[in-house]
Amino acid sequence: MLAKYDKLFPVNADFTGILSDVGTVIGGATPSKKRSEYYCSNGIGWITPRDLSNTSDKFIAHGADDITDEGYASCSAKLLPKGSVLFSSRAPIGYVAIATNEVATNQGFKSVVPKEEIGTAFVYCFLVRNKQRIADMGAGTTFPEVSGKMMKSVELAVPEQSLCAEFDVFAEPILKQQETLERENRDLAALRNALLPKLMSGEIDVSKIDLTQLNSHLGDY
Q: Mean pLDDT over all residues of the chain?
């Protein structure tokens, strides 16, 4: 099934366009860390490369810190719509994630807002497959970085719109299922973290639970 879409991501193909042909490249910014009122725990999702380094999830809505409306207005950060593909452009280059809500990022990203006729699935797969090629474009004396101009100029084979639309229809339910599973895993982890200390301290008593009933189904295997 996937083989029919190989032509969307050809290897060593003749390039017919650049990344800015399939989406808008947008950078980020950081509100002053000296102003505590610029940060909060439940505001505008604000993502840094470190947030992606701490997870293997494909989807993200919030990082370690959110920013307030005042913090957002204080800098040149831009709101990226749901479905934008975040791409870390320094320290390191090549983390890729999909925004599940409107988010902003710091300056360590050159994210792509896909054109409607192209879709999130194509842009995400292209960036994942080509992150090393993009990383090799990086320049800088302290650490490699991909500039906005470099990111926009990444060469690619611009897909046929009909095939891209077909691929998007194929990939969308898969992405939604992955997003649901990631959310369920986070919920289960939060529940475990809340219950485990109570179990260890004896606050929750499980001594009277009949485990033989819970495990009775195992005798069928």
A: 91
